[in-house]
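Kindly inspect both lines:
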Amino acid sequence: MNTLEKIIADKYVEVEARKQQRPVAELEKSSAFSRATLSLKSFLLDPTKSGIITEFKRKSPSKGLINGTSSVAEVTKGYEQAGASALSVLTDLHYFGGTTEDLELARKQVAIPILRKDFVVDEYQILEAKSMGADCILLIAAALTPEKVQSLAAFAQNLGLEVLLEVHNLEELEQSFCEPLDVVGVNNRNLKTFEVSLDTSLELVDRIPNQVVKISESGISNPATLVAFRKAGFHGFLIGENFMKTSSPEQAAMDFILEFRRLMEEQTSGLAGHGN
């Protein structure tokens, strides 16, 4: 059993326990459940924003502890001020050190879309995401059958949440792409081996249907990579570890986004000059 299979097996057990602790009727009573959600798609496509989804992540199975000291409130608010288009918050406790309270706290800090980053295997988790104040859920192709992807995606969209499908290779993309989806993310980290290759994104970008927003995830540490990926056809990027491994993730994000914007402006003015 690889790490992903172990996580998914544990997640099924965890979800059954959570259902007993907080029945659906209780989730539906939360104030966040009735709020109007924000569109991750729209924020990523907004030309005045960076297209970057910044992530709050304490640890991971591949890297262990990444950041055990930063405050959710400070970092998420700082991410928004730095120019992030959206926020990703890990809510898996055992493998990533995240909690549902992290997302609830982040929701109070920011006015940008929030992705609930977890291993969604059950409709109950989508109801949970809505009750926390999330705007989007993650579905991981490697962890679900194509039929499950489709049914969970439809359930989420009926609740007013957007759906990000994460793929790692062409086979997953071809098997799991369905209507309705809002965003497709190419994860450059193989969840079975944890090896990272940025080529994965470049190999898949043109294979993703154009009706969805395309993002690249994992292993991105250089603003110049974003410029190249934008040119290749990506609309957005999910970056977490690169910021979270520093003592001030929000400052790291601000420096990164400023440099990315500078490089984009440089390229745009260069192209304009070339056209004259």
The CA atoms of residues 11 and 17 lie 10 Å apart. The first strand starts at residue 52 and ends at 56. Strands lie at 52-56, 59-60, 64-65, 86-90, 114-117, 136-140, 162-167, 183-187, 213-217, 236-239. The mean pLDDT is 95.
